[in-house]
Amino acid sequence: MRSIQTYTIDHPIAFKNKLLQWSQQFEEVIWLDSNEYPQQYTSYDALLAVDAFTVLKTDHYGAFDALQEYQEQTKDWMFGYLSYDLKNDTERLVSENADHVAFPELFFFQPKKLLLLKGDQLEMHYLRMVDDECEEDYTSITRFSDTIQMREQQDPCEKVKVRLRMTKDAYKEKVQRMLGYIQRGAIYEANFCQEFYATNSCIAPLETYVHLNKISTPPFATFLRFGTHYLLSASPERYLRKEGTKILSQPIKGTAKRAVDEAQDTALKTTLSKDPKERSENVMIVDLVRNDLSKTATKGSVRVEELCKIYSFKQVHQMISTVVAEVAADTTPVAVLKTTFPMGSMTGAPKISAMQIIEELEVSKRGLYSGAVGYFTPTGDFDFNVVIRSILYNQAKEYVSFTVGSAITAKSDPDKEYEECLLKAKAMREVLEEKI
């Protein structure tokens, strides 16, 4: 179905910039970059999928059934996303908050051209109908500059003025209401989010992504485009990975800022690792993930590989756990996704009650935020991130948005939760408010 050409690349990191620039000619683009972050579980350093041959685009109704049918019929590489609001396909839930960004709730495509980078090896997987373009494309890619030039934006793309959808007082009042639910025993924990946005605004998507990625360098960075819809993501979190019969989830719960001074930075990291509130948040979500994975796992196979380990990124320290399971060989990949989605780190416990309360207290539809972007392989393996630390841009509507949140538990202080949101928003806000 696909022809494969392999090339040896002299300078892989610089070559990534060439790939990104070359990709901008296409209407459908997904770029996934590990940023050379040291990971135990990774298949490629970067993947680029462009130019759709077939597309699946739908709302939440019957979305997972449609995805399974598409995956079974295609039996090929597929790239795309699951929006948070697919929760309405898995449970009797609704999404009635205002949808300002207006992305489809599910989008996948089968790329004509796929480029996989691992170390200094580039593989170009082309559908037969375009495989005669492979050598020409490779030559074209190598002609691009090693660095992406940040062009000076002209009117109307002036500096973006970011606003908050919720005032600080309104945020604190809603956190207090959520704490009331916790005190009454309706939930133990819920992820509460707020939107930052800009109207009548335009941005340069590629340059904005490059700037965001540079100041964050996360292991699950994403540049996504289809038509006039863009996702620019600096996500540090994996949602779910399938390799053969092994399933792996790596939820994040627990955040601390970084410090320039090495001793102070180490102290912040140590404090986070011992913080009882942060650890309890993480453990609650680990229990939720274990429960979700058990729905398709073989008996007794769910186990915690790492609990509350601290990982450091440019902007923050994060507390991450790793949960693994085995599934039967005949378990479909979409079944694993459907029974675990949305991810526990972005919902709460108990999961359904948390999602109902989230819908009540939040004021914007989440959409792609706290959903997942990733890919399926022809053999049914997959890898998906969690869409956080991300900018959504609807070019046609001239609307720019990013959302941040934090986990609310019985020990939460509304002021501290608000500060955590501002910390998580820092990189996106900096990128948008500084004129590139």
Please bin the fraction of helical residues: 25-40%
SSE class:
alpha+beta
How many β strands by DSSP?
20
The N- and C-terminal alpha carbons lie at a distance of 42 Å
In angstroms, what is the radius of gyration?
21 Å
Mean pLDDT, to the nearest integer, reads 94
As residue ranges, the low-confidence spans are none
What proportion of the residues form beta strands (DSSP E)? 25-35%
Largest beta-sheet characterization = 20 strands, antiparallel
Total helical elements: 11
- Shape annotation: globular
Description:
The model has no long low-confidence stretch (mean pLDDT 94). The chain has helices at 12-23, 63-74, 87-90, 134-142, 168-183, 205-216, 262-274, 276-294, 333-338, 351-361, 414-433; strands at residues 2-8, 28-33, 46-58, 78-82, 106-118, 121-127, 163-164, 189-198, 220-226, 229-235, 238-243, 246-250, 252-257, 303-312, 316-326, 348-349, 372-376, 382-385, 390-394, 399-408. β17 and β18 (382-385) form a beta hairpin. The protein has a 20-stranded antiparallel β-sheet that branches. The longest helix is centred in the C-terminal third of the chain and has 20 residues, at 414-433. The chain contains eleven helices and 20 strands. The chain has 436 residues and is an alpha+beta fold.
